[in-house]
């Protein structure tokens, strides 16, 4: 009886262990929102290509798309993105299997802007719903399986905000039963809405929205919604939007665009226009939170000036694009030690692009239409592959299920990378 009981306990523990592993995999694989599951540009996929085949990468499928700056979100066998079309700003769901168009939904008139046409934000897939934000600031909730609209809210207009000059670029952030976007206005630069109804739950932060997407970071053992708006970065309590801490970081032309990322409990922010970057330490005291600079590197000699690209953290080092000068005419690819801000290496004049990290490597899309694979090591720049596969794009690749998806202004391309 004793041994039978021990055996049963062992089997229960084994099943529980396997179940836990399955849950972790279900949560960590996929790319359901801007910058992936953790909104940090890091994929949990493993077993990816160590270098590019001599015969070139295999294109699984390539389908027609449209003009826009929205990247691709992936979940439950669907790849979802947005573009301008003859029906307006269109949300399109494609089959991961073969690129078949599963459904489309028009959410607003076409968006046009001198800095490029089309929607800017990336859809967020949360459970059975998709949340999208248009170029002028309309937030819509769609059914993920059918594309049927559940609700739509003209957030910027209703908040009496002023749209960002180059278009609303904030990708929706879903936290429990609220969805968060930026809007702009007095006390309304950040807005949380009920995911089911679209009703306003809370508003916070003064000023213009900027172009960054908020992130949910773990700071001092608590969850903080960290929003990088035009005038600086702010930590907010998710439940009610209470401001917990803030740090001023105004950038010319309100061009705070990169998403804040967590670095060992600290917060890293960076901006272009020759502004620079700073690593912030947030500490909790009886009277509230305090913010201090761990290190800062600003102005024309900064080590990292992210223009629209968010840096990624890999094994204690930040990899990102350092854009030199106003509007970044010269762009270096740079690796920086996160703890100190010391440059580990720089690939001078690499050129403009975007990046994520996956399987210990840096996956880069260039404005020339190339996919470039670089070793994720602080020892020096080591290129593992480069191939032209698409047209000009600002979007990063989205990696899920062994495939890398990227879109330009004409197509959505699915590349086999496993």
Protein model, in words:
This protein is mostly beta strands and 418 residues long. It has one domain: Quinoprotein alcohol dehydrogenase-like superfamily (Methanol Dehydrogenase, Chain A, 8 Propeller), CATH 2.140.10.10. It is built from 2 helices and 33 strands. A 5-stranded mixed beta sheet has the order 1-27-28-29-30, with no helix packed on it. β27 and β28 (361-366) form a beta hairpin. The model is unreliable at 1-28 (pLDDT under 50).
Distance between the ends: 48 Å
Return the CATH architecture.
8 Propeller
**CATH homology superfamily name:** Quinoprotein alcohol dehydrogenase-like superfamily
Mean of pLDDT: 92
Helical coverage, percent range = under 10%
Instruction: Output the strand order for the largest sheet.
Output: 1-27-28-29-30
Please tally the helical runs, counting DSSP H or I stretches of 4 or more residues: 2
Low-confidence stretches: 1-28
Estimated share of beta-strand residues: over 45%
How many structural domains are formed by the residues?
1
The radius of gyration computed from the alpha-carbon positions, rounded to a whole number of angstroms, is 21 Å
Query: CATH class, anyone?
Result: Mainly Beta
The major pleated sheet works out as:
5 strands, mixed
Helix/strand/pairing category: mainly beta
Any idea what the shape is?
globular
Number of DSSP E strands? 33
The third-level CATH topology is Methanol Dehydrogenase, Chain A
């Amino acid at each position: 009886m004793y041994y039978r009981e021990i055996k049963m306990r062992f089997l229960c523990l084994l099943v529980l262990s396997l179940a836990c592993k399955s849950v972790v995999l279900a949560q960590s694989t996929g790319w359901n929102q801007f910058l992936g599951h953790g909104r940090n540009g890091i994929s949990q996929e493993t077993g990816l290509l160590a270098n590019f085949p001599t015969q070139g990468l295999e294109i699984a499928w390539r389908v027609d798309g449209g003009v826009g700056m929205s990247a691709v979100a992936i979940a439950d066998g669907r790849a979802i993105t947005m573009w301008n079309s003859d029906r307006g700003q269109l949300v399109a769901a494609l089959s991961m299997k073969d690129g078949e168009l599963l459904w489309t939904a028009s959410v607003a008139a076409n968006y046009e802007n001198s800095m490029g046409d089309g929607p800017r934000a990336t859809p967020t897939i949360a459970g059975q719903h998709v949340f999208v934000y248009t170029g002028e600031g309309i937030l819509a909730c769609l059914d993920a399986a059918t594309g049927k609209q559940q609700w739509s809210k003209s957030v910027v207009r209703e908040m009496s905000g002023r749209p960002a000059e180059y278009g609303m670029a904030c990708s929706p952030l879903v936290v429990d039963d609220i969805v968060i976007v930026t809007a702009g206005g007095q006390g309304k630069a950040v807005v949380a809405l009920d995911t089911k109804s679209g009703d306003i739950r809370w508003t916070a932060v003064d000023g213009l929205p900027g172009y960054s997407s908020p992130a949910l970071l773990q700071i001092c053992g608590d969850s903080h919604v960290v929003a990088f708006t035009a005038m600086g970065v702010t930590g907010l309590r998710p439940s009610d939007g209470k401001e917990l801490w803030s740090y001023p970081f105004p950038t010319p032309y309100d061009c705070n665009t990169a998403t804040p990322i967590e670095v060992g409990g600290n917060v890293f922010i960076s901006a272009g226009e020759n502004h620079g970057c700073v690593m912030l330490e947030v500490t909790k005291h009886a009277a509230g939170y305090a913010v201090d600079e761990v290190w800062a590197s600003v102005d024309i000699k900064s080590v990292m000036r992210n223009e629209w690209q968010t840096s990624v953290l890999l094994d204690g080092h930040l990899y990102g694009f350092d854009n030199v000068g106003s509007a970044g005419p010269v762009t270096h690819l740079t690796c920086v030690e996160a703890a100190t801000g010391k440059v580990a290496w720089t690939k001078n004049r690499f050129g403009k692009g975007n990046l994520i990290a996956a399987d210990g490597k840096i996956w880069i899309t260039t404005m020339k239409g190339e996919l470039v694979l670089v070793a994720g090591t602080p020892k020096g720049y080591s290129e593992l592959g480069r191939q032209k596969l698409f047209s000009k794009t600002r979007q990063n690749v989205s990696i899920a299920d062994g495939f890398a998806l990227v879109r330009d202004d004409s197509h959505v391309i699915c590349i086999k990378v496993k």
